[in-house]
Amino acid sequence: LTRHGVNDPDMARYAAVRRFYWVRQQSMLRSVQPVLEALSSAGARIMLLKGLPLQQVYARAALRPTSDLDLWVPRSDLPAAFRSLTELGFLPVNRRLPRDGVGADAYTVQHAVTLRRDADGLEVDLHARLHKSIPSISLADTLFRRATPLTVAATSVVRLSLEGSILHAAAHGLGSETGSAVRGIADVATLLEDGRDVIDWEELKRLAREAEALTAVATMVMEAYEAMGIPVPQQAAAALDVREASRADRWGWKLVRPGQPSQVFRSALLSYLRARSAAKRDAEP
Q: Which of 74, 42, 41, 59 lies closest to 147 in space, CA to CA?
């Protein structure tokens, strides 16, 4: 704003808000470091989602605050991950779940299990699927195999590929129950700008169709380009043609969009039905 010549009394307040998030982020990173180290030492392979990896593409970490730790581990590593988190004082927020947080059925029907440590309030969302409205369980395994290395708090982990990150950010932006997709648009726009010369649009299309999220990706990508004031690249427009989306894709994202009556109930019911269907389809013998 300063570079653009904006001079307003609220600028001081914005600076204070930015400093608040910077300080909180430093505190969170100190809490996260021993958690990631413990998980790694327990043999759990970690793929970070959402906030922490996205901070790597923003100009400054304070511009993309996050208050929890979102991660995914392969199903074979789940027992070690839950055991390690429990030893660190984390318990499932849903008290009806067993202390280890998982029977396989409960874990795969829910898109994630949230665990909280009362000592400092830190929350860890341990994901089975990328998003509540993305039914595929196996897609996360595919993206894990294509993930890129990342070091957070001196611990080696991995993060989603560029195309996987755009898919995930778009799903969260369009499926937000709070009604605000502003952060989602900012996330998608930042990823598009950071990877503008290397995005594989056909790969993004393939991932979006497998996730039944072509509608979400196309919508958020178009809105992100509009927000940046940049014309949509022809290759992007051709790849993300919503006419190629399945009926389940189109109607599924229409139902989870905010601002509709009984939005939360519809979203939860739809997510459960799609996840149950995917869990049966992906079930191991």
A: 74
Structure tokens at 71: 């991660």
Residue with tokens 């969170």: 28
Q: Which residues pair with 152 in a beta bridge?
A: 155
Phi-psi region of 47 (alpha: psi -120 to 50; beta: other; left: phi over 0): beta
Q: Following CA atoms 82, 83, 87, 93 in sequence, which dihedral angle do they give, to the nearest 10 degrees? A: 30
Name the residue with tokens 């074979």: 76
Residue linked to tokens 């004031």 = 229
When pLDDT is cut at 50, 70 and 90, the band that residue 167 belongs to is very high
Question: In which band, very low, low, confident or very high, does the pLDDT at 250 lie, cut at 50, 70 and 90?
Answer: confident
Confidence (pLDDT) at 23 = 86
201 Cβ neighbours under 8 A, 6+ residues apart: 233, 235, 236, 238, 239, 240
